[in-house]
Amino acid sequence: MAAVSLAVNGTPVTADVDPRTLLVQLLRENLRLTGTHVGCDTSQCGACVVQVDGKAVKSCTVLALQLEGADVLTIEGLAAPDGPLHPMQEAFRENHGLQCGYCTPGMIMTAVDIVRRKGHELDDKTIREELEGNICRCTGYHNIVKAIAAGARAMQGGGAATKAAE
Amino acid sequence: MTATGIGAAVRRKEDYRFITGKGHYTDDMTRPGQVYAYFVRSPHAHATIKSIDSKTASGMPGVVAVFTGADIAAAKINGHICGWTVTGSDGKPMKAAPGSALATGKVRYVGDEVAVVIADSHAQAKDAAEKVVVDYGVLPAVVDPKEAAKPGAPQIHDIAPNNTVFNWNLGNKAATDAAFASAAHVTKIDIVNNRVMPAAIEPRAAVGEYDAGTDSFTLYTTSQNPHAARLVLSAFAGIAPENKLRVVAPDVGGGFGSKIYIYAEETVCVWAAKKVGRPVKWTAERSESFLVDAHGRDHVTHAELAVDAGGKITAMRVHTIANLGAYPSTFWSCVPTYLYALLLSGQYNIPNIYVEVDAVYTNTAPVDAVRGAGRPEATFVVERLVERAARETGRDSVAFRRANFITSFPHQTPVLLCYDAGDYGASLDEALTLADYKGFAKRKRESARHGKLRGIGFSTYIEACGLAPSQAVGSLGAGVGLFESAEVRVNPVGTVEVLTGSHSHGQGHETTFAQVVSDRLGIPIESVSVVHGDTDKVQFGMGTYGSRSGAVGISAVVKALDKVEAKAKKVAAHLLEAAEADIEFKDGKFNVAGTDKSIDWVSVALNAYVAHKFPGSQLEPGLKEGAFYDPTNFTFPAGCHICEVEVDPETGNTEIVAWTAVDDFGTIVNPMIVEGQVHGGIAHGVGQALYEQAVYSKDGQLVTGSLMDYCMPRADHLPVLTVATTVTKCPSNPLGIKGCGEAGAIASPAAVINAITDAIGTEALAMPATPPAVWAALQKSGRSLPHAA
After folding, report:
1. Is B499 helix (H, G, I), strand (E, B) or coil?
2. How many Å apart are CA B217 and CA B205, to the nearest integer?
3. Which of A91, A120, A122, A117 has the alpha carbon at shortest distance from A104?
4. How far apart are CA B727 and CA B590, in angstroms?
5. Residue A164 has what pLDDT?
């Protein structure tokens, strides 16, 4: 076992983990943050995407011990507690960008990262190419793409939740 | 229409928990003292099990127990069953081989469960599983269904000579042959309907629990139909009587058919929970899902269409070999028979149809229903045949379809179904307009100018869903009824719980079912909660598959609402001191006809429970009613999908540049949700047409064992989708709903292949139409260069 200290959704966390523990296991099993999902075993599906130091990372592909001192943001921390939803969360709901909801946390965390890198005016082609690492079986992506374009524009409007996430 | 009633695009009530990471999926659950199961699986497609040595594994750190087939057999726990007995052409029942939750004596496909290791942690269970030594006697395997049926092929089950599950037929052979003999033109086609994997993004999972105090079990699991799971685990697997077994299917991350079935892993987890005295959890890894979740399709078909000199279809003849994999599965046998052959008339008036289906065992994963289940296979046969017949006889493919459309209803087909309503011309016309069919020739010339081959493909499909009238399916061999149940519980403050036997795993029942109640009772949608997925809460129901939740599940809710309204009127009559016959109910108010006397919904609900204002001898207190709705016919959604592609002749790459879908789903409760279902279905079908194929090596190894190898469509594989509807109401259920969950997957593969073959000018193209496949087809045809007309 080995100790690792990091911040998760702004809260300092120290955990004693088996060295083979993945970040997603630390989140789901140790911290009981079950909003981050596992859909595959080859880093293809993107259901496990979180942000590490502000960048999207597949949490099934990084060891917990690699994250000493890191700042991790999960879907549970995207909006302030008891505050309004993050504009990207709101956009997914408004545009019916989810059905079973299983890929959704990873989609939303990826979407926020796309906005960080590509800006607020996202065309259809850009969004689709940037979603290369996220698979959805339910929606055919049509409404996810719409949601991300709308969410990106809404994030430009600002708001406390948006700034915290950016 | 109210803002939250039937027909409104209400934003989903269930979304909040999913977008904030607060959903409750099976793997999110942690029970006190929980241990983890890991399955030892056969690495061979076909082998005898000579011995299993689990001594070393049992002594590994954290290991609680190791169980094998011998333990399961000693406990008299049974395995796989199929709930539908198909009778073959010889009049004998199909050869349904017995199975065991853990293999005994023999393994029959790669992934077959041989032993289970249970340990304190998942990692410990997995480590120990590697130390279970199984001595196999490897046998020759067969994965090709044609080879499997030949004399001398490896024999998979003793019960099934030549690996044949059944030979089955439907239709009038003599009349069909006669029509072919006099045909002006016969179109022939050979099709391989590619094997696909369902691939819900949430892998299957189970947590089994045993309460020694009450001698009862609970199974939390990823199920589309928890009551059916309980029934099978109880009556067939022998876990416990139903009253001692609770099955909970919480939030479920997609199903697509794969979570209908009752598999070995769930059975073992709930059984082992009592053996080890602790809750037992198992969550599939993706590679396990691909190995053992039932696969779909896998047909080899030869089909022929007879056309007369005037362009009328006179007959269809079909022979299909269906690969059913290594073991029976829950719906297994009805997929290539009653969910397939009955749809071969499509939207067309075809006087004569004859179909033969040979179903065979192979050393592969069981094949069962995947989104569409039989109907995509049928639609592909019909729509490819019709398209080719039009092309071969020099007819416009739109005009050829239209000339053969069924236009009067009811219409009895030669393959059992009686279509009740539809307007196929209307959906075709609307689709042609939306797709700007008139502009296609110009777009094709523009594509040619930049070196691309443009093609257009149609699929005017029909499906039979709203599964299903119990008496009808019973007469065809189903072992269960396919009704649905509902209970509407009105609380004293007027809020409502709807308990449905349907199960939502993405379909949005918590919203649409609440819309129906809100609309009917005139109460805010926030006052309605939908409860599903727990056999301890909900009365027996049949779950969700076959596009049945709207057509069957909501119909049960409507039936229960009828009873609630009738009872509420009696209460209101007492409160208003009027005759019951004079009470009218509208917009949440009970009025005495012809007067201004009225009372609101909340007051009636409260008084129903307070019970001060009516004598208990005349009227029972309370306001809660249940209903079982059994459909009287299948429903028949139909429509037209138009796919437009550009093929790059240099690479064979296909880009779908436009998609138009016009579907007739009857009454629509929530158009936003229906559009979403269509989008997802199209993506599923496009996946089959262009990307997806489950591949086994000759010795039975699954080559496409991970998402690195099995290509599921990503966002950039799919176009913007234009989706619209036309409406003819379903005459057989109270709201006129037909169902929409499978339509996209049923319609789309044929539209894609019709478009690509139109683009490349050659018909010899199989699914998936990958760039190498399209490129090779082009090279072979010698038509690789586009010509600007």
Report:
1. strand
2. 16
3. A91
4. 32
5. 44
CB half-sphere exposure, B271, CA atoms < 13 A: 28
* Residue type at position B513: F
Task: State residue B786's pLDDT score.
Answer: 56
What gap in Å lies between CA B784 and CA B553, rounded to an integer? 51
Q: Looking at the partner chain, which of B11, B286, B715 has a beta carbon nearest the beta carbon of A39?
A: B286
Q: State the nearest Cα–Cα gap between B481 and chain A, in angstroms.
A: 27
d(CA B529, CA B515): 10
Closest CA to B506 of A148, A85, A143: A143
Please check whether residue B359 is in contact with residue B168, taking contact to mean a CB–CB distance below 8 angstroms.
yes
User: How far is Cα B327 from Cα B263, in angstroms, rounded to an integer?
Assistant: 11
**DSSP single-letter state for residue B3:** T
Q: What is the pLDDT of residue B781?
A: 85
SS3 B645: strand
Tokens for B324?
């059913």
Cβ contacts of B24 within 8 Å, gap of 6 or more: B17, B250, B251
Interface test with B, best of A16, A112, A142 (most B CBs within 10 A): A142
Strand (E) positions, B392-532? Answer: 411-412, 418-419, 453-462, 484-490, 496-500, 528-531
Q: How far from the centroid of its chain's Cα atoms is residue A55's Cα?
A: 9
SS3 B726: coil
- pLDDT under 50: residue ranges of chain B: 788-789
- Which run of H or of E encompasses B426? helix B424-434
The alpha-carbon gap from A99 to the nearest alpha carbon of chain B, in Å, equals 4
- CA dist., res. B488 & res. B624, Å (int): 6
Nearest residue to B751 via CA among B458, B372, B427, B460: B458
Residues of A in Cβ contact (< 8 Å) with B254: 99-100, 102, 137-138
All structural domains of chain B, each given as residue ranges with its CATH number in brackets, are: 34-139+202-253+259-292 (3.90.1170.50), 299-468+633-781 (3.30.365.10), 483-629 (3.30.365.10)
Q: What is the pLDDT of residue B99?
A: 86
pLDDT for B785 equals 61
What whole-number distance in Å separates Cα of residue B658 and Cα of residue B655?
9
Could you tell me if B38 and B66 are in contact, meaning their C-beta atoms sit under 8 angstroms apart?
no
In this predicted structure, the answer to whether residue A133 has a pLDDT above a threshold of 60 is: yes
Given this model, what pLDDT does residue A158 score? 61
For residues B178 and B326, what is the distance between their CA atoms, to the nearest angstrom? Answer: 38
Question: For residue B149, what is the DSSP state?
Answer: T
At B787 the pLDDT is: 52
Give the pLDDT confidence score for residue B2 in this predicted structure: 82
Nearest to A142 among B15, B285, B721 (CB): B721
Who's near B543: CB < 8 A, 6+ residues apart? B223, B224, B225, B226, B227, B228, B260, B501, B502, B503
Q: Give the integer Cα–Cα distance in Å for B457 and B756.
A: 7
Which ipTM score applies to this complex?
0.97
Q: Which of residues 201-230 of B touch A (CB under 8 A)?
A: 201-203
Instruction: Flag whether the pTM goes above 0.90.
Output: yes
Pairwise CB contact (< 8 Å): B19 & A102: no
pLDDT given for residue B79 in this prediction: 86
Question: Residue A29 burial (CB < 10 Å; 0-12/13-18/19+)?
Answer: middle
Give the integer Cα–Cα distance in Å for B654 and B645.
6
What's the confidence (pLDDT) of residue A82?
86
Nearest to B676 among A33, A96, A104 (CB): A96
DSSP H or E segment with residue A6: strand A2-8
Q: How far apart are CA B524 and CA B506, in angstroms?
A: 23
Domains of chain A: 2-76 (3.10.20.30), 87-165 (1.10.150.120)
A139 vs B contacts (CB less than 8 Å): 676, 679-680, 683
Phi, psi (degrees; rounded to nearest 5) at A56: -70, 135
